[in-house]
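Appendix C reproduces, verbatim, an entry submitted by the partner laboratory led by Prof. M.T., so that reviewers can inspect both the input and the predicted structure.
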Amino acid sequence: MMYHILIPDNVDSSAIELLQKVDTFQVNAPGKLSREDALAAVANAHAMIIRSAITADAELLNAAPNLKMIARAGVGVDNVDLQVATERGIVVMNTPDGNTISTAEFAFGLMLALARHIPFGDHSMRQGKWDRKAFMGVELRGKTLGIIGFGRIGQTVAKRALAFDMTVIAHDPFVKQTDLNVELVDQDTLYSRADFITLHTVITDETRCMINAQSLAKMKPGVRIINTARGALIDDAALAEALNQGKVAGAALDVYHQEPPPQDHPLLNHPNVIHTPHLAASTSDAQIQVAVDAAQQVIDALTKGEYRNVVNPDVLK
């Protein structure tokens, strides 16, 4: 049987070449498609590899009668309607390993930038100023880092923090023990002890807007917050208020409820917030790896019946 593989987004050529080596695959990789073109192209697809630009909602999935699987070159599957996919018998897989290092390094970079006011100092000099006193920072050594979400990325951040002589505590309801020198604590304990808090958890009913007025009130004065996970983890208005009151010393945000954020976003022009446009996984290394991982998942699934990193496991029952 000939399988039609659709890649309606830009992925590294090494992934396309890997798929093209399979004799039973016909690969359609036109690059990033418009919504209209994607709806037309998916009609014959047996498998699809996507990034974040393609929204695999009910309309798209119902336009693909032959679709057996979707491989997400990346971690988040917010752009896939998992309920409809499951009902249609479509297996959805992600590639959680490929961007772990890039995301962890970026989160740690944001923590350093917050601690030492690096982007603000740069901006000041570009305005012709030389104001050293305005940017007095703090060391990471001896500070407590609280990690919310202790999976691959959280643990990779922890290793780097330990190398900087930080005390590391973590909260994750699904992690009961660790071989790292990290204390696993409950959420309130983490809030009360951490000098820096970095978010690496998924969006659930329990985690949505978990950084809110109530949780911020439990945190140490002068806490700094880093989010490279999901924008919906933070109540933006509550964080803005905590920053204005001085309860939170600074925040670094790479993700937002809406991307790009609207110009009236309450944190966009705040002087104590670092903003980046969802760059955590944006390294050439990570993009190559997640694309190759996604291609290999499609190959293994269609030629061997082997599935990895399935995010809607009920579909296999």
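Residues 3-98+284-316 form a domain with the Rossmann fold fold (CATH 3.40.50.720). Additional entries are available on request from the coordinating office.
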